[in-house]
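Problem statement: downstream parser choked on a complex file, so we are re-checking the raw output for the thymidine-5'-phosphate run. The parser issue turned out to be on our end (a line-ending mismatch), but while we're here, posting the original submission so the record is complete.
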Amino acid sequence: MEKREELYAGKAKSVYTTDDPDKLVMLYRNDTSAFDGKKLAQLDRKGMVNNKFNAFIMDKLEQAGIPTHHEQLLSDQESLVKKLDMLPLECVVRNVAAGSICRRLGVEEGTDLTPPTFEFFLKNDDLGDPMVNESHIRSFGWATEEQVAAMKDLTFKVNDVLKTLFRDGGMLLVDYKLEFGMYKGELVLGDEFSPDGCRLWDVETREKLDKDRFRQDLGDVVESYESVGRRLGLDFDA
Ligand code: ADP
Ligand code: TMP
């Protein structure tokens, strides 16, 4: 496999074409962004940690029957993925209230959400990733009814798998964001799953172990991501 030219650079990752038109190389940079790019920093080791963390989680999801774009780790900061036709939507499931839902609905952080909530957001930094509903998705043609149903179904399946995985490591999966795309007619999980795109709290102390450490200037951001991985049995030096 040969890495060719940069296709696009996002806020945290860059994507490259390869000699295989169906595959891309995803480079996890150390760039860290929050609040739709309003807060930016370079964090040592973050690219490597998120790349390995994501590969570990995607493998677990594949084993549970969830189709993902992940093919293989190529290096510390690079992975080979299937080239997806991305849907411009973010799927968010919340088991516990935190972040924007607290601001929007006036609920207290830490409130249990039973059953978990599901929300769609439009992937558009200029608009601040606004929340959208299924009627908007249909009227603007962002996804078909079938794709909407499949995204919801897969996002909740991910919750079943990962809630248990993190719970076994003494962590609470508070919420997370997933992105999907199409590959040869099939809806496939794309982008990444790492502490950059989810909230994880220690079950006992409720200490924040995810990107809220960066958003809220709590310090030890990458150290915390690594500790999450280690609790799951991941060896970042392997
Ligand atoms: P952002 O676009 O939010 O700044 P990143 O820096 O993570 O995000 O950039 C990665 C980009 O690659 C995102 O736009 C994401 O939608 C896109 N992407 C993720 N997985 C795939 C894939 N398998 N095929 C094509 N594009 C992908
Ligand atoms: P929120 O509380 O800001 O709406 O975010 C909910 C979860 O989804 C949280 O774990 C962060 C993640 N998320 C992203 O990673 N990127 C995004 O653009 C959005 C809207 C949410």
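For whoever reads this later: The first strand starts at residue 3 and ends at 9.
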